[in-house]
Amino acid sequence: MKVHLQLYSILREKLPPEAKGKVILQLEEGATIDSILQEFDIERRVVVSVNGKYEPDTSRQLRDGDQIKIFAGISGG
Amino acid sequence: MARSYNGKILHVDLTNGEFRVEEPGEGFYRKYMGGSALAMHYLLKEIPPAADPLGPENVLVLALSVLTGAAISGQSRMTAAAKSPLTGAIGDSQGGGFFPAELKFAGFDAIVIKGKAEKPVYLWINDGRYELRDASHLWGAITGEAEATIKEELGDDKVEVLQIGPAGEAAVRFAGIFSMSNRANGRTGMGAVMGSKKLKAVAVRGKKRPKVADKAGLSQLAKWGVDNLDDSDIAGLAKYGTAETTGSNQTSGTLPTYNFNSGVFDHWESIDGTTMYDTVLRGAAEGKQDRIGRDTCYACTVRCKRVVEITKGPYQVDPHYGGPEYETTSTFGNYCAIDDLPAICKANEICNKYGMDTISCGATISWAFEAFNEGKLTLEDTDGLDLTWGNAESMVKLTEKIAKRDGFGDILAEGSERAARKIGRGTEAYLITFKGQEAPAHMPRVKRSLAIIYATNPFGADHQSHEHDPAIEGDFEFYTERLALLGFSEEQEPRSLSDEKIRFTVASQRMYSAMDSLNLCQFVYGPAWQLYGPADMVELVKTVTGWEDVSLDELQRVGERRLNMMRTFNAREGLDRKDDVLPQKLFKPLKGGVSDGWKLERDEIESALDKYFEFCGWDVKTGNPTRAKLEELDLGWVADQLGMDG
DSSP 3-state assignment of B145? Predict the structure, then answer.
């Protein structure tokens, strides 16, 4: 399946600069948000939305066509 | 023994132009450590009860800590404190830059300012020498111009200038105190106090570096920060600024929009930190913004400050006035449903030129926007400005009118609470004020411990006075080691106000209070996601001061001491639990996004307040410190001064 991923702030530097944080990922069926975090070696605190909705459960299985946004960012400030 | 502090406090009486240098002993510095706690010592001793905040009897303290000027990130900060003309309670604000370190190098740990000068003056401190100089020619000048003139007449470009702008001169109740024309001690109206004393500026220059007890140890700690910044949770904040948090706040429904009626803003991406980095930072067009579009404070490796330059279009912005923080993109942006980043940068520039707090200014404007959109204000009231949600042009014009106290701006320059009182028509329902101070851009209906802190904080709503809920909710797993040092080992449910959450709120408030006394940056140091954790903070104090037996417990007590002094100051002014109230709006449901329908419940808040006061060791009925608590904190003199019963 294919999902659309957008990484923000410091996380977008996981991708080449010209991508501006956007990439289409080819994932195996059953892949989860955690699968993406592992693929990009993201071990820090993140906030994730799937199809515009907050998703605190990173073990959630993804579906073909999902739009995923991942934010770094602190909780105060 | 080498000392990391000067051991000198400069007292200035502007009424008669007299100076006095006090030299407190080590016990004084160990007890208060500096900054806000040290300031409270003088404010309690020197301000008479019921003083007019804008009268000569008010006292303004500018204070550094035993750490200021040491060569490590996050230490060049200063407290400005006095009785607040915005709240009528204790006022307190923190600011960074190069001025704090330079004041330390000039030979003083704090300046205690009282009285009122006959004509405008500025204070010049040069390597331990001090004098008042005429500032009549600077009165009315915007910050950038006054700063340039002072440097020119002192013949030294390296002089650091702390000053008020025309808004402080005109007693705008949320006027701040500024250095570098872009670093603000913004909150609680300290600029109006300075203006009421006819003190335009303080200029400093010095060569006396603090004597660090363990130079090698400090160097090692500083290097650890440099080496670990890129892998830390503040790496994004460093590069993309505090507005990098816009997207995560939007996603979790805690981005205050339409004056706190919603927690989501559809156009958030137009104003977030990543967009700012790509579009308006100086050098962005050539890809040089990392080098010339970011700025820093003395000895800080983080470089989180924004430098915006816009040379085309309706909102041109001079990089001398810096760039907006998340708080500013929020108050002038999502609070007002405005998605025009250059307009927000322009409002930020106006605030820095004229010397106003961007939080209270933007939030006061968003109150006016809501009142207009609800039909309670008309074009006749607003001098013809159309305050329909999202109108960026009107927002920028209104910001300037407030700075100049022009027309409708004169009403708003009093702050939203006084404006609502004057206008009436039910506009009080749109307030988001706590003790008269406008709320920063974090939402109590989502991060519920904020409801308790905003309500009880002695100087009104403040977002930098404790660790927000996520650290002990969903993010807990990332910070277990650090939080264990504070005594917390259990993750709490989202949006809970459990006893354990309240205990965490109290403990982390004490830590933030200690940081405001040590004058440490709360992005660089803190209990959870910050670059350095609690153990590092203890190590820093040991390394710099040579106080080998200092502990986290002792730092927490310094924080607790400050809070007790502040709360007692307020008690003396007649404040108590009845003043720890939340705006009625927060008990109504949010609209849209993940936080749709979320609201506070009055019973739940009252129970949480009971628990909060209990954990603080204060009287639950009044919310005020007891003599026993003050004595426990070695503050018996405060209880004596108030004539408290034994």
Answer: helix
Q: Is the pLDDT of residue B35 over 80?
A: yes
Whole-number percent of chain A with pLDDT over 90: 87
Q: Is the pLDDT of residue B646 over 70?
A: no
Alpha-carbon distance of B485 to B392, in angstroms, equals 46
Same domain, B327 and B197: no
Determine the pLDDT at residue B641. Answer: 87
Interchain CB distance below 8 Å, B478 and A47: no
Considering the domain architecture, whether residues B407 and B480 belong to the same structural domain is answered as: no
* Residues B199 and B242 occupy one common structural domain: no
List the CATH number of the domain containing A39.
Answer: 3.10.20.30
Count of domains for chain A: 1
On whether both B420 and B461 belong to a single domain, the answer is: no
Asked whether the whole model's pTM tops 0.90, one would answer: yes
CATH number at residue B135: 3.60.9.10
Determine the structural domain holding residue B144 and report its residue range.
9-205
CB half-sphere exposure, B558, CA atoms < 13 A: 32
Nearest CA in chain B to A48: B251
- Please report the ipTM that was assigned to this predicted complex: 0.95
Domain count, chain B: 3
Distance, C-alpha B207 to centroid of its chain:
28
User: Does residue B496 form part of some domain?
Assistant: yes
pLDDT(B624) > 60: yes
- For B176-199, what is the HEC assignment? CEEECCCEEECHHHHHHHHHHCCE
The three-point CA angle B219-B223-B226 to 5° equals 145
Nearest Cα of chain A lies from the Cα of B582 at a distance, in angstroms, of 20
Strands (E) across B97-215 are located at 110-114, 121-126, 129-134, 160-163, 177-179, 183-185, 199-205
B75-114 tens-digit pLDDT: 999 999 999 999 999 999 999 999 999 999 999 999 999 9
> Closest by alpha carbon to B590, among B469, B465, B495, B507?
B495
B42/B58 Cα distance (integer angstroms): 11
Among the partner residues A56, A73, A74, nearest to B247 by beta-carbon distance: A73
**Which among B248, B463, B464 has the least Cβ separation from residue A71?**
B248
Tell if the CB–CB gap between A77 and B237 is shorter than 8 Å: yes
B485, B577: one domain:
yes
Nearest by CB to A10, which of B240, B272, B447?
B240
CB contact under 8 A, B594 and A48: no
On whether any CB of chain B is under 8 Å from the CB of A50, the answer is no
Average pLDDT, integer, range B210-216: 97
Mean pLDDT of B470-496: 95
- What does the alpha-carbon distance between residue A7 and residue B454 come to, in Å, rounded to a whole number? 33
Token reading at B340: 């025009």
Give percent above pLDDT 70 in chain A: 95
Q: Tokens 């519920």 sit at which residue?
A: B448
In sequence order, what are the beta bridge partners of B131? B124
Residue A20 lies in domain: 2-71
For residue B159, is it left (φ>0), alpha (ψ between -120 and 50) or beta?
beta
User: Does A54 sit within 8 Å of B252, measured CB to CB?
Assistant: yes
Cα separation, B542 vs B30, whole angstroms: 12
